[in-house]
Structure formats: C-alpha cells, structure tokens
Fold these 3 entries.
Entry 1:
Amino acid sequence: QVQLVESGGGLVQAGGSLRLSCAASGSSFTANTMAWYRQGSGVQRESVATFTRGGSINYADSVRGRFTISRDNAKNTVYLQMDSLKPEDTAVYYCNADIWVGGRLNNYWGQGTQVTVSS
C-alpha cells in the first residue's frame, strides 16, 4: 500500500513564502509523474504544477514565475516552493502521483494541506 503524506501548509501574509512537501511511502514502488493540485473554497480542484519522472515540468499560468516544483526521486518526495504568495493562492493543496506498484500504474492523492494567505 502506498501513501502520500503532505506537510508544510500554514498561514502566511501576502508576499510571503511557504514550502510544501509530499513523501510517498510504502514498499516496492516507483513514482512516475508527481504533481500538486489545489482547491479553493467553492471552486473546482485545479492543477498547480506537475513534474514527470523524465524531468518535464508544467505550471498553471496563475503560479508560473512564483512557484517552483522539485522532486527527489531517491526520497520519493515532491516539493512545492511558493513565493510571492497572494490571497488568491489560499486553498487546500493536494499532492498527486502516478505510482507503479506490482506492474500496475495507480493514481494516488494526499490528504491535503491548508494554505492561507492573508492580505
């Protein structure tokens, strides 16, 4: 069984920074694409940033230039460095990963971590 465990959310003032972490745990697995999504109050969940195992990175237009996704394959961990935060970045942030387990590619979600940006 694979689990994604997130950490690093919190309350920050506009213009500040936060760093989110998401670690995949379990046995005998390989993480493929790892990504961050977010869901604000009353809106649909949206993709924030993705990082494929091959090294391709994509960002939502709303965060490009302010957020940086990175990953450590040895630790099966993905990070999201969030700088120049704005109140509209307030949301629950979710880690998502495609993970090979026993020859099958499965999709997993973390439990979510709250990020609140005050004006």
Entry 2:
Amino acid sequence: QVQLVESGGGLVQAGGSLRLSCTASMSTSRILGMGWYRQAPGKQRELVARTFNDDSTNYANSVKGRFTISRDNAKNTVFLQMNSLKPEDTAVYYCNARLGWVAGTVDYWGQGTQVTVSS
C-alpha cells in the first residue's frame, strides 16, 4: 500500500499564493503519475493538475497560468504551486497517485488539505 501525506494548505487572501506538497510513503516504479484534485462543498471532486512519468502535465482550464505542478522523483514528492488565488479556488485539495499493477491501475488518495481563499 502507498500512503500519501499532504501539507501546505491554509488560509490566504485573494491574489496570494500557497504551495502544497504530497509525499508518497514508499518509492515504487509502479507510480504512473501523481496529481492534485479538489472538492468544494456541494460539488464533485475535480482534477486540478497532474503529471506523468514522461514529464507531461495537464491542468484544469480554471487554473492554467496560475498553478504549476512539479515532481521530485527522488523524494517521491509532488508539489502544487498556486499563485493568484481566487475565492473560487477554496476547496479541500487531495493528492493522487496512480499505480500500475498486473491487474490494472489503482488510484491512491491523500487525506486532503483545506485551502481557503478569502475575498
């Protein structure tokens, strides 16, 4: 099992920045990619950004140009740099790791970290 430990959430004013970190508990070549999702109250969980082993990335349209995902493979850690934050970015942010097994892929999730952006 892979455990994901997140940190870096908090309260920030609109226009401010936060950096989220997520570290996997074990080093494994089975990790196909890592990313961040978020869930606001009353809404479904949505993709924010993800990165894959070939260093490709993709972002939700709502965060393009403001958020940057990066990964430190040596430390099994993925980061999300969030700039120019808006109140609508307020949500619980979840780290995700997708692992490949013989039977297929499995998604692992962190416990979530709250990000609150005040207007």
Entry 3:
Amino acid sequence: QVRLVESGGGLVQPGGSLRLSCAASGNVYTIWSMGWYRQAPGKRRELVATITRTGSTNYADSLKGRFTISRDNAKNTVYLQMNSLKPEDTAVYLCNAGGVVTHDGTGDYWGQGTQVTVSS
C-alpha cells in the first residue's frame, strides 16, 4: 500500500512564503512523476507543477517564477516552495505520484491534501 503524506500548509499573509512537502511511503521501488495540484472552493482541480525522476519540470504558466518544485528521489519526497503568495493561491494543495512502481505493479496515487490559506 502506497501512502502520500503532505505537510507544510497553513495560514500565511500575502507576500509570504510556504514550503510544502509530500513523502511517499510503502513498498515503493521508484516513482516516475511527482507533483502538486490545487483545488479552491467551487473551482476545478488545477495543475501547479510536476517533476519527473530525471528532474524535468512542468509548471502552470501563471505560477512560473513564484513557485519552485523539487524532489529527493532517495526519500521519495517532493517539495513545493511557494513565494510571494497571493490570496488567490488559497486552496487545498494535493500531492500526486505517477508511475509508482511497487511489488504489486505500477499505479498513480493522491495524497489527502494540505490547506494553504493566504490572508491578512
């Protein structure tokens, strides 16, 4: 059983920063892609950023320059550094792991999400 556990969310003032972490646990051999999505109330889930095992990144155009994704393959952990946060960044941030290889095969997984609230 693969489990993704996010941490690092919280309340921050506009212009502030947060760093999210997501660690995959379980009988994981390798993970191809890890990433972050977000969903605000009443809105569709949207891509924030993804990163492959080889370090290739993909960002939502609107977030380039403010958010940075990184990962530690040895720890099966992905990070999201968020700077210059705006109220419109308020959402539940969900971690995704794609192409997760375990003893039982390959699959995709989602975390439970961590709340990020940007407000003064």
